[in-house]
Amino acid sequence: MTEEEIKKLIVDYVIREYLDDDTTEVKPDTKLISSGIVDSFSMVSLKTFLEKKFAVKIPDDKATPQAFDSVNNIISLLREFGINPT
Amino acid sequence: MSHFGTYEERAKDFTWTQSETEIYEGVRSRNIGYLCSDRICERGLGQKVALYWEGFTGQKKVFTYDDIRVYSNVFAKYLEEIGVQVGERVCIFMDRIPELYISFLGILKRGAIAQPLFSAFGEEALFTRLDDAKTRAIFTTRKHLNKVRRIKAQLPDLTKIIVVDNEGKPLEKNELSFEMEHRPKVENYDSHQVNTETPSVLHYTSGTTGKPKGALHVHGSIVAQYITAKWVLDLHPDDIYWCNADPGWVTGTSYGIIGPWSNGITQAVLDAGFGVDKWYAFLQDYKITVWYSAPTAIRLLMKDGVEKVNKYNMPCLRHLCSVGEPLNAEAVLWSEKAFRRPFLDTYWQTETGCIVITNFPGMKVKPGSMGKPFPGITAAIVDPKTFEPITKPGTVGLIALKPGWPSMIRTYWNNQTTYEGKFKNGWYICGDRSSIDADGYFWFVGRDDDVINTAGHLVGPFEIESALLEHPAVAESAAVGKPDPINMEVVKAFVALKSGFEPSDDLELEIMNFIRKKLSPLAMPQEIEFVKALPKTRSGKIMRRLLRAQEWGEEIGDVSTLEND
């Protein structure tokens, strides 16, 4: 997948699963955790989604609010686990 | 110098009359809405800042006491104009924006009952609570409107859906636009005259069985909330106070609105999710002096170490308290290193309305202890069978309180029988286990039921299990708390699938999100274990305690009633 495709995949998931209004726009740099779009409890389901989609295991100490705070941050995190966009 | 002095002095001759005198002297009304706004202005503090507010994007707003007086009048008058009657329930369902705090006072001024609900609740959790309370009106925002829209057809009593940030967007039947700062100002509004027993706030809390219960508070609760805020939180006139709790829960109203504002204190609110740097910057930038937080947040901060704290300049911070779940000794010791003062643990519940057992400023802290009863509160540990007080130090029993303090709930909404069941042998039984040491300090042991305490919030297993059964793949389920180093407990679900469904990662994620959207992120199982069948008694009841014991590594106990395979 290209970086754009990965970003779109995650953005679409966030919009579908965590947003319930049509007024909030999500971009790759939109704050997810610190904005409250994804709360700290729901991070687990976002982590599960990423692990399943990219066949990786993200250790709990890497799954921090900072690491999940935007789609761009998540891309950086995935790179640590060898998920490199083509 | 703290307000509190020494424990012995305060406990010796305390009566609630002391607080009544301070709060009610020279007032025109005993309405909490008036007492937290008009009364402060009448004492010459109208231009003092009541609220510093910062949103997640960095947007800032400032409201003086005169502002919150006038704007809460605007809310009250509006409710009157649209026909909301005295005693009707008005829900507040929004993030921590200024309208949440100010509408709370306005609803009370109107004489209606404020029903704040956590904005992360999903539609089913919202429906259960609005349906039970027969709520007449709801204040919400565009962000949460769709949840209300999906359930409003099943709520015939909910005839006023008020959107506070609509900005001209299309609205449906029974929906109204109300923008606080664009309404004509209301300089004078006669708050509905109340007595101390007039209902004020309805907070929903979870139990082991049945639906969530509406804990009904009264206007007289302010007597306890005022003095506990003053003495335990040690609020002084020049303080800048930050309470992390969301007013969808009782801490957020008792000590996020009533406590500080009845004391005429400036408070700061950050409407943003958790972020270590964001929080430290907030403490620094707003020169917070008193901080009321929660163990989960403290443990998250601990992960980034003292070094992170040292990057910020927080010389004003002088008093720290914690609530929601037991504060472990490590967190107390860490805060002494990080902030040069301990977090003081405070214990109370939705039903108590105010802090009842606590560590006090100036009192010796025993890290890991809950502290001692607030003066005016008679607390004991009672035997779980006889409900007689246990006098032997170190013996574990049930925490029990002598009824009669001002902020105790007066009933559960529509559920007087359950309310009466909380009293045994003349004691109110809290549902928690503890012991008392030889010095009179209480030491928390755990819940006495299956309710899950996750990050300081009580989640009822029955509500989760009921929702799980609505998923097309789930045949039967059990929800229990499992230990978690940050949140104390998180929800774990055991699920047996219907024939034709197979366990998979996809299904686990689907069920997680299903519960999150229906109930709330707090109720979402953080782990799902697929099982062939659940352990049951011979009469078919799921043995939740057996699953819980397995998660906690405890002895399983008596399984003589376990159904044979």
Structure, described:
By secondary structure, chain A is mainly alpha-helical. Chain A has helices at 3-18, 43-54, 71-80. The N and C termini of chain A lie close together (6 Å). In chain B, helix 7 (123-133) packs across helix 8. Chain B is built from 18 helices and 27 strands. With 565 residues, chain B is of the alpha/beta class. Chain B is globular. Chains A and B meet through helix 2 of A and helix 8 and helix 17 of B.
Which secondary structure elements does this structure contain, and how are they paired or packed?
The complex is a heterodimer of chains A (86) and B (565).
Chain A: H1 3-18, H2 43-54, H3 71-80
Chain B: H1 7-12, H2 17-24, H3 32-35, H4 38-45, E1 49-55, E2 60-64, H5 65-81, E3 89-93, H6 98-110, E4 113-116, H7 123-133, E5 137-140, H8 142-151, E6 160-163, E7 175-177, E8 199-205, E9 213-218, H9 222-231, E10 240-243, H10 250-262, E11 266-271, H11 276-285, E12 290-293, H12 295-303, H13 305-310, E13 319-322, H14 329-339, E14 343-347, E15 357-358, E16 372-373, E17 379-382, E18 397-401, E19 411-412, H15 416-420, E20 423-424, E21 427-436, E22 442-447, E23 452-454, E24 457-459, H16 461-468, E25 474-484, E26 488-497, H17 505-518, E27 527-531, H18 544-552
Parallel strand pairs in B: 1-11, 3-4, 3-5, 5-6, 6-7, 10-11, 10-12, 12-13, 13-14, 26-27
Antiparallel strand pairs in B: 1-2, 8-9, 9-19, 14-15, 15-16, 17-18, 18-21, 20-21, 21-22, 23-24, 25-26
